[in-house]
Amino acid sequence: MNSLWQRLYDSAWHQPGSELLLGLVALALAARWIVAGGRARSPFLSAWLGLFGVEILLDAWLTSPHSPLLPDHGGLVGSLAIAFVMLGDARYYVLVERYTRDPSPDARPSTFTARAVLAGLAWGSVVSVLMAPLARTVPAFQRELRLIFLTYELMALAQAIVWLKV
Fold first, then answer.
1. What is the 3-state secondary structure (H, E, C) of the chain?
2. What is the pLDDT of residues 29-73, one digit of tens each?
3. Class of residue 43 by CB neighbours under 10 A (exposed 0-12, middle 13-18, buried 19+)
4. Spatial CA neighbour of 84 closest among 111, 62, 110, 116
5. Of 15, 91, 124, 131, whose CB neighbour count within 10 A is largest?
6. 89-107, pLDDT tens digit by residue?
């Protein structure tokens, strides 16, 4: 018999419930911070927080075990999960690229921003592109999805460290 904690963990209260609730609270706090004093603090940061805040909520809702897209016979949920992982990585690199290229937080959208978004999307896809053939060819990854997750996260961490050092 499953424990209370296991039943809670497997329920919709945990995923997507808690993620959606916490995400909505974070998005509301971000919106409040963005427009403090009646004007937007940073156009880029405002757009970044809004776009990726909604992306996080969609990820929690559409890729959970209680997704409205289930049963998924065409693999849409799996494809969305991969896309959300790549967007999650890109989220970090877009932000860091933007403020590395043009550190002024109040700067208007410019070619620096466009380049930062393109560079961030490129950097954010590196680990996924490297991981895809490994996930298909390494037999251990076929048996244990946790190995894919752990390997992916370690590769993403290594990439971020190398990016920051170089």
1. CCCHHHHHHHCCHHHHHHHHHHHHHHHHHHHHHHCHHHCCCCHHHHHHHHHHHHHHHHHHHHCCCCCCCCCCCCCHHHHHHHHHHHHHHHHHHHHHHHHHHCCCCCCCCCHHHHHHHHHHHHHHHHHHHHHHHHHHHCHHHHHCHHHHHHHHHHHHHHHHHHHHHC
2. 888 877 776 666 677 787 888 888 889 889 888 888 888 888 877
3. middle
4. 62
5. 124
6. 999 999 888 888 766 655 5
Instruction: Indicate the number of domains in the chain.
Output: 2
- Using an 8 Å Cβ cutoff, are 95 and 113 in contact? no
Rounded CA separation 147/156 (Å)? 14
- For residues 3-28, average pLDDT: 82
Give the structural domain span for 32: 1-68
Q: Are residues 103 and 137 in the same domain?
A: yes
